[in-house]
Amino acid sequence: xxxxxxxxxxxxxxxxxxxxxxxxxxxxxxxxxxxxxxxxxxxxxxxxxxxxxxxxxxxxxxxxxxxxxxxxxxxxxxxxxxxxxxxxxxxxxxxxxxxxxxxxxxxxxxxxxxxxxxxxxxxxxxxxxxxxxxxxxxxxxxxxxxxxxxxxxxxxxxxxxxxxxxxxxxxxxxxxxxxxxxxxxxxxxxxxxxxxxxxxxxxxxxxxxxxxxxxxxxxxxxxxxxxxxxxxxxxxxxxxxxxxxxxxxxxxxxxxxxxxxxxxxxxxxxxxxxxxxxxxxxxxxxxxxxxxxxxxxxxxx
Length: 301
Fold this sequence. Notes:
By secondary structure, the protein is α/β, with parallel strands linked by helices. About 55% of the residues lie in helices and about 15% in strands. The chain has 13 helices and 9 strands. The chain has helices at about 10-20, 40, 50-55, 70-75, 100-110, 125-130, 140-150, 165-195, 200-210, 215-225, 235-255, 260-275, 285-300, and strands at about 5, 25-30, 45-50, 60-65, 90-95, 115-120, 120-125, 135-140, 155-165. The strands form 2 sheets. The protein has a 6-stranded parallel beta sheet with strand order 3-2-1-4-5-6, sandwiched between helices. Helix 8 crosses helix 13 (about 285-300) and helix 9 runs antiparallel to helix 10 (about 215-225). The longest helix has 29 residues, at about 165-195.
Protein backbone atom coordinates (compact mmCIF):
# COMPACT_ATOMS: atom_id res chain seq x y z
CA UNK A 1 0.00 0.00 0.00
CA UNK A 2 1.32 3.44 -0.98
CA UNK A 3 0.28 6.69 0.69
CA UNK A 4 -0.91 8.87 -2.19
CA UNK A 5 -2.03 12.46 -2.47
CA UNK A 6 -4.23 13.16 -5.48
CA UNK A 7 -4.96 16.62 -6.86
CA UNK A 8 -8.02 17.04 -9.05
CA UNK A 9 -11.46 15.45 -9.14
CA UNK A 10 -12.66 15.70 -12.73
CA UNK A 11 -14.04 12.75 -14.65
CA UNK A 12 -10.59 11.43 -15.60
CA UNK A 13 -9.20 11.90 -12.11
CA UNK A 14 -12.19 10.15 -10.56
CA UNK A 15 -11.74 7.10 -12.77
CA UNK A 16 -8.03 6.95 -11.94
CA UNK A 17 -8.58 7.38 -8.20
CA UNK A 18 -11.09 4.53 -8.19
CA UNK A 19 -8.49 2.26 -9.80
CA UNK A 20 -5.91 3.26 -7.18
CA UNK A 21 -8.37 2.59 -4.36
CA UNK A 22 -9.30 -0.77 -5.85
CA UNK A 23 -5.61 -1.67 -5.90
CA UNK A 24 -5.47 -1.08 -2.14
CA UNK A 25 -3.69 2.26 -1.95
CA UNK A 26 -4.25 4.96 0.68
CA UNK A 27 -5.54 8.00 -1.22
CA UNK A 28 -6.20 11.52 0.06
CA UNK A 29 -7.88 13.66 -2.57
CA UNK A 30 -8.12 17.39 -3.08
CA UNK A 31 -10.66 18.94 -5.42
CA UNK A 32 -11.66 22.58 -5.57
CA UNK A 33 -15.32 21.57 -5.01
CA UNK A 34 -15.49 18.78 -2.44
CA UNK A 35 -19.16 18.01 -3.05
CA UNK A 36 -18.25 16.75 -6.52
CA UNK A 37 -16.04 14.01 -5.07
CA UNK A 38 -18.13 12.75 -2.15
CA UNK A 39 -18.57 9.53 -4.12
CA UNK A 40 -14.82 8.93 -3.84
CA UNK A 41 -15.01 9.46 -0.08
CA UNK A 42 -17.65 6.74 -0.02
CA UNK A 43 -15.27 4.54 -2.04
CA UNK A 44 -12.53 4.91 0.57
CA UNK A 45 -10.64 8.10 -0.25
CA UNK A 46 -10.06 10.80 2.34
CA UNK A 47 -10.94 14.32 1.24
CA UNK A 48 -8.64 17.28 1.86
CA UNK A 49 -9.51 20.96 2.00
CA UNK A 50 -6.25 22.07 0.37
CA UNK A 51 -3.59 20.57 -1.91
CA UNK A 52 -1.13 20.84 0.98
CA UNK A 53 -3.37 18.73 3.20
CA UNK A 54 -3.78 16.12 0.45
CA UNK A 55 0.00 15.83 0.06
CA UNK A 56 0.92 15.76 3.76
CA UNK A 57 3.13 12.73 4.41
CA UNK A 58 2.52 11.31 0.93
CA UNK A 59 5.03 9.02 -0.78
CA UNK A 60 3.62 9.99 -4.16
CA UNK A 61 1.43 12.88 -5.27
CA UNK A 62 -0.51 12.67 -8.52
CA UNK A 63 -2.29 15.49 -10.31
CA UNK A 64 -4.88 15.49 -13.06
CA UNK A 65 -6.06 19.05 -13.62
CA UNK A 66 -7.15 21.24 -16.51
CA UNK A 67 -4.21 23.37 -17.57
CA UNK A 68 -1.02 25.22 -16.60
CA UNK A 69 -2.81 27.69 -14.36
CA UNK A 70 -4.57 24.95 -12.38
CA UNK A 71 -1.36 22.94 -12.10
CA UNK A 72 0.62 25.95 -10.90
CA UNK A 73 -2.02 26.63 -8.23
CA UNK A 74 -2.22 23.10 -6.83
CA UNK A 75 1.56 22.65 -6.72
CA UNK A 76 3.02 26.08 -5.92
CA UNK A 77 0.11 28.22 -4.73
CA UNK A 78 -0.22 29.49 -1.13
CA UNK A 79 -1.67 26.12 -0.06
CA UNK A 80 0.14 24.14 -2.74
CA UNK A 81 1.12 20.52 -2.40
CA UNK A 82 4.84 21.32 -2.60
CA UNK A 83 4.55 23.22 0.70
CA UNK A 84 3.49 20.02 2.50
CA UNK A 85 5.73 17.78 4.59
CA UNK A 86 6.12 15.04 2.02
CA UNK A 87 7.82 11.72 2.62
CA UNK A 88 11.59 11.87 1.95
CA UNK A 89 12.27 11.40 -1.78
CA UNK A 90 8.57 11.57 -2.66
CA UNK A 91 7.56 11.33 -6.30
CA UNK A 92 5.58 14.10 -7.97
CA UNK A 93 3.57 12.69 -10.89
CA UNK A 94 1.72 14.93 -13.36
CA UNK A 95 -0.98 13.28 -15.47
CA UNK A 96 -2.28 16.63 -16.73
CA UNK A 97 -1.79 17.83 -20.30
CA UNK A 98 0.21 21.02 -19.89
CA UNK A 99 2.62 23.21 -21.81
CA UNK A 100 6.15 21.90 -22.20
CA UNK A 101 7.60 25.09 -20.70
CA UNK A 102 5.60 24.73 -17.48
CA UNK A 103 6.47 21.04 -17.17
CA UNK A 104 10.20 21.84 -17.32
CA UNK A 105 9.76 24.68 -14.83
CA UNK A 106 7.79 22.47 -12.44
CA UNK A 107 10.39 19.71 -12.75
CA UNK A 108 13.07 22.21 -11.69
CA UNK A 109 11.03 23.36 -8.68
CA UNK A 110 10.44 19.76 -7.61
CA UNK A 111 14.10 18.80 -7.89
CA UNK A 112 15.21 21.86 -5.93
CA UNK A 113 13.17 20.43 -3.05
CA UNK A 114 15.01 17.11 -3.28
CA UNK A 115 11.97 15.32 -4.72
CA UNK A 116 11.50 13.32 -7.92
CA UNK A 117 9.45 14.46 -10.90
CA UNK A 118 7.61 12.33 -13.46
CA UNK A 119 5.57 13.73 -16.30
CA UNK A 120 3.01 11.10 -17.08
CA UNK A 121 0.22 12.36 -19.37
CA UNK A 122 -2.25 9.79 -20.61
CA UNK A 123 -4.24 9.15 -23.76
CA UNK A 124 -7.81 7.98 -23.43
CA UNK A 125 -11.05 9.10 -21.87
CA UNK A 126 -12.55 8.37 -18.45
CA UNK A 127 -14.12 5.13 -19.65
CA UNK A 128 -10.67 3.92 -20.74
CA UNK A 129 -9.24 4.91 -17.36
CA UNK A 130 -12.01 3.03 -15.57
CA UNK A 131 -11.24 -0.06 -17.65
CA UNK A 132 -7.46 0.24 -17.18
CA UNK A 133 -6.99 0.89 -20.90
CA UNK A 134 -5.12 4.20 -21.01
CA UNK A 135 -1.91 4.74 -22.95
CA UNK A 136 0.64 6.32 -20.63
CA UNK A 137 3.39 8.62 -21.94
CA UNK A 138 6.23 8.88 -19.43
CA UNK A 139 9.11 11.32 -19.14
CA UNK A 140 11.21 10.30 -16.14
CA UNK A 141 14.46 8.85 -14.90
CA UNK A 142 14.32 5.07 -15.28
CA UNK A 143 14.42 4.40 -11.55
CA UNK A 144 11.49 6.77 -10.97
CA UNK A 145 9.48 5.06 -13.70
CA UNK A 146 10.01 1.72 -11.99
CA UNK A 147 8.77 3.19 -8.70
CA UNK A 148 5.51 4.40 -10.21
CA UNK A 149 5.01 1.49 -12.61
CA UNK A 150 3.00 -0.63 -10.12
CA UNK A 151 0.61 2.30 -9.65
CA UNK A 152 0.10 3.24 -13.31
CA UNK A 153 -0.06 -0.33 -14.61
CA UNK A 154 -3.65 -0.82 -13.30
CA UNK A 155 -4.63 2.28 -15.31
CA UNK A 156 -3.02 1.36 -18.58
CA UNK A 157 -2.88 -0.97 -21.55
CA UNK A 158 0.61 0.25 -22.44
CA UNK A 159 3.33 2.42 -20.90
CA UNK A 160 5.71 4.30 -23.20
CA UNK A 161 8.93 5.71 -21.75
CA UNK A 162 10.27 8.50 -23.96
CA UNK A 163 13.24 9.64 -21.87
CA UNK A 164 13.95 12.32 -19.28
CA UNK A 165 11.26 14.49 -17.65
CA UNK A 166 9.57 16.64 -20.26
CA UNK A 167 9.65 14.07 -23.05
CA UNK A 168 6.35 12.48 -22.01
CA UNK A 169 4.60 15.83 -22.26
CA UNK A 170 6.37 16.69 -25.52
CA UNK A 171 5.08 13.48 -27.09
CA UNK A 172 1.57 13.96 -25.70
CA UNK A 173 1.34 17.42 -27.23
CA UNK A 174 2.54 16.15 -30.61
CA UNK A 175 0.09 13.24 -30.32
CA UNK A 176 -2.78 15.62 -29.54
CA UNK A 177 -2.11 17.85 -32.53
CA UNK A 178 -2.19 14.84 -34.86
CA UNK A 179 -5.41 13.58 -33.26
CA UNK A 180 -7.23 16.89 -33.60
CA UNK A 181 -6.10 17.25 -37.20
CA UNK A 182 -7.73 13.86 -37.84
CA UNK A 183 -11.02 14.95 -36.25
CA UNK A 184 -11.15 18.15 -38.30
CA UNK A 185 -10.19 16.24 -41.45
CA UNK A 186 -13.03 13.81 -40.79
CA UNK A 187 -15.51 16.68 -40.35
CA UNK A 188 -14.39 18.22 -43.64
CA UNK A 189 -14.65 14.85 -45.42
CA UNK A 190 -18.17 14.23 -44.15
CA UNK A 191 -19.23 17.79 -44.91
CA UNK A 192 -18.00 17.31 -48.49
CA UNK A 193 -19.81 13.97 -48.69
CA UNK A 194 -22.99 15.66 -47.50
CA UNK A 195 -22.60 18.38 -50.15
CA UNK A 196 -22.16 15.64 -52.77
CA UNK A 197 -25.43 14.01 -51.74
CA UNK A 198 -23.79 10.97 -50.13
CA UNK A 199 -25.44 9.29 -47.15
CA UNK A 200 -23.35 10.23 -44.12
CA UNK A 201 -23.84 6.93 -42.29
CA UNK A 202 -22.49 5.03 -45.26
CA UNK A 203 -19.65 7.52 -45.70
CA UNK A 204 -18.65 7.29 -42.03
CA UNK A 205 -18.63 3.49 -42.17
CA UNK A 206 -16.52 3.44 -45.35
CA UNK A 207 -14.02 5.91 -43.89
CA UNK A 208 -13.78 3.87 -40.70
CA UNK A 209 -13.24 0.59 -42.54
CA UNK A 210 -10.64 1.86 -45.02
CA UNK A 211 -7.05 2.98 -44.55
CA UNK A 212 -8.49 6.29 -43.36
CA UNK A 213 -9.96 4.55 -40.30
CA UNK A 214 -7.97 5.89 -37.36
CA UNK A 215 -9.34 5.62 -33.85
CA UNK A 216 -10.65 9.17 -34.10
CA UNK A 217 -12.41 8.44 -37.38
CA UNK A 218 -14.02 5.30 -35.96
CA UNK A 219 -15.11 7.08 -32.78
CA UNK A 220 -16.30 10.43 -34.14
CA UNK A 221 -17.69 9.35 -37.53
CA UNK A 222 -20.94 7.92 -36.12
CA UNK A 223 -21.47 11.00 -33.91
CA UNK A 224 -21.10 13.30 -36.90
CA UNK A 225 -23.17 11.14 -39.25
CA UNK A 226 -26.03 10.68 -36.81
CA UNK A 227 -25.82 14.24 -35.47
CA UNK A 228 -25.98 12.74 -31.99
CA UNK A 229 -23.01 13.78 -29.91
CA UNK A 230 -21.71 12.82 -26.47
CA UNK A 231 -23.78 14.34 -23.69
CA UNK A 232 -22.16 15.19 -21.38
CA UNK A 233 -19.18 15.77 -23.67
CA UNK A 234 -16.18 13.53 -23.23
CA UNK A 235 -14.07 16.34 -24.64
CA UNK A 236 -15.02 19.91 -25.50
CA UNK A 237 -14.06 22.48 -28.12
CA UNK A 238 -12.39 24.56 -25.41
CA UNK A 239 -10.33 21.55 -24.39
CA UNK A 240 -9.20 20.99 -27.96
CA UNK A 241 -8.14 24.62 -28.26
CA UNK A 242 -6.10 24.36 -25.07
CA UNK A 243 -4.33 21.21 -26.27
CA UNK A 244 -3.70 22.64 -29.74
CA UNK A 245 -2.34 25.89 -28.33
CA UNK A 246 0.17 24.03 -26.16
CA UNK A 247 1.06 21.63 -28.97
CA UNK A 248 1.51 24.30 -31.62
CA UNK A 249 3.63 26.32 -29.18
CA UNK A 250 5.93 23.34 -28.66
CA UNK A 251 6.25 22.58 -32.37
CA UNK A 252 7.03 26.20 -33.17
CA UNK A 253 9.66 26.29 -30.40
CA UNK A 254 11.24 23.23 -32.02
CA UNK A 255 11.47 25.07 -35.33
CA UNK A 256 8.56 23.27 -36.95
CA UNK A 257 5.84 24.88 -39.05
CA UNK A 258 2.59 23.26 -37.82
CA UNK A 259 0.41 24.24 -40.78
CA UNK A 260 -2.17 21.51 -40.13
CA UNK A 261 -2.26 22.23 -36.42
CA UNK A 262 -2.99 25.90 -37.03
CA UNK A 263 -5.73 25.01 -39.50
CA UNK A 264 -7.33 22.69 -36.91
CA UNK A 265 -7.07 25.44 -34.31
CA UNK A 266 -8.90 27.82 -36.66
CA UNK A 267 -11.66 25.28 -37.15
CA UNK A 268 -12.20 24.85 -33.41
CA UNK A 269 -12.03 28.61 -32.89
CA UNK A 270 -14.92 28.88 -35.34
CA UNK A 271 -16.83 26.43 -33.14
CA UNK A 272 -16.16 28.62 -30.11
CA UNK A 273 -17.20 31.73 -32.05
CA UNK A 274 -20.52 29.98 -32.72
CA UNK A 275 -21.08 29.66 -28.95
CA UNK A 276 -20.09 25.99 -28.66
CA UNK A 277 -17.00 26.20 -26.44
CA UNK A 278 -18.43 23.62 -24.04
CA UNK A 279 -19.98 21.40 -26.70
CA UNK A 280 -18.68 17.96 -27.64
CA UNK A 281 -15.64 18.10 -29.91
CA UNK A 282 -17.37 16.02 -32.62
CA UNK A 283 -19.71 18.97 -33.18
CA UNK A 284 -16.84 20.52 -35.13
CA UNK A 285 -18.76 19.29 -38.18
CA UNK A 286 -21.32 22.05 -37.52
CA UNK A 287 -18.57 24.67 -37.61
CA UNK A 288 -17.28 23.18 -40.87
CA UNK A 289 -20.81 23.35 -42.32
CA UNK A 290 -21.02 27.02 -41.36
CA UNK A 291 -17.75 27.69 -43.14
CA UNK A 292 -19.13 25.90 -46.20
CA UNK A 293 -22.23 28.12 -46.14
CA UNK A 294 -20.06 31.20 -45.79
CA UNK A 295 -17.92 30.17 -48.77
CA UNK A 296 -21.04 29.66 -50.90
CA UNK A 297 -22.35 33.08 -49.95
CA UNK A 298 -19.05 34.65 -50.97
CA UNK A 299 -19.18 32.85 -54.32
CA UNK A 300 -22.69 34.18 -54.97
CA UNK A 301 -21.60 37.69 -54.06
